[in-house]
Design goal:
The chain is of the alpha+beta class. 24% of the residues lie in helices and 21% in strands.
Length: 252
């Protein structure tokens, strides 16, 4: 797998993000590549910035509106809110204050719709058979580990799961539930190269991903649902179910 981070102009409110990315990316885009885009620049282009960075009360109110479920900030020694949004556990519902021009930056209002639209636009500039994938990525922490890693929030243009269920391992023992999440694997590698600071490389081109199956359409509802695990089936259910979650605005 090859990951190339791409520098772009500073993304501003109201810009045509697909056009800006197209002007910055290789022309044509390589066949069988995945373009990973930071959710932050999608939110900026879509006019999602709001409020003022550093306003604690405004941040917490926005988190309550954006999250599906949340824990009040007093539950954390860091005055943050643990949240569930889009079947993800994120701090502060993914709302960021860095690289947001002094404001608060929530996720795009509909990340899947944004990913689909970017896929349609960027695919017009792809080479060969126009086999192209798109991922919207954000970064978040892993419990009991310092540091953040990239996470795929939405994807389009390729099969997201590689299912090993029923196939034998090296010693003939069949897998009973093993699946590789290709969206998350690719997003983690891409965000590592894109960076977290002032690099101004909010997009990356990922090539040579082994056995990636591209699609010439948007993912179906059934395919998106297959990426989610219900709380009852989740291995972390004993912890998740014991927390005093409150329903947020996105969960109503």
């Amino acid at each position: 797998m090859t990951v190339t981070a791409v520098r772009t102009p500073l993304i501003r409110h109201g810009c045509d993000l697909a056009a800006v990315l197209t002007a910055s990316l290789p022309a044509p885009l390589p066949d069988r590549c995945v373009v990973v885009v930071a959710t932050k620049v999608v939110s900026i282009a879509e006019g999602r910035l709001t409020g003022r960075a550093g306003d604690r009360a405004a941040l917490h109110d926005l988190v309550r509106r954006e999250a599906e479920y949340y824990l009040e900030p007093h539950a954390s020694r860091y005055d943050i809110m643990l949240t569930i949004k889009g079947n993800w556990m994120f701090v502060n519902a993914g709302i960021d204050q860095s690289n947001a021009a002094g404001q608060l930056a929530p996720w795009p209002s509909d990340p899947q719709r944004s990913a689909n639209e970017l896929w349609r636009r960027l695919r017009e500039h792809a080479a060969g058979e126009r086999r192209l994938g798109v991922i919207l990525a954000d970064s978040g922490g892993i419990p009991l580990n310092w540091g953040v890693v990239g996470r795929g929030i939405a994807h389009c243009g390729f099969v997201a799961l590689r299912d090993y269920t029923g196939t034998p391992d090296l010693h003939g023992r069949p897998f009973t539930m093993e699946k590789t999440n290709l969206v998350q694997s690719i997003a983690a590698a891409a965000v590592l190269e894109m960076g977290e600071g002032a690099e101004r490389t909010p997009v990356a081109v990922v090539e040579h991903v082994g056995r990636l199956q591209f699609q010439d359409r948007e993912p179906t509802g059934a395919e998106l649902s297959a990426l989610r695990i219900s709380l009852e089936d989740d291995a972390y259910a004993p912890i998740l179910r014991s927390a005093p979650w409150q329903r947020g605005g996105a969960g109503s």
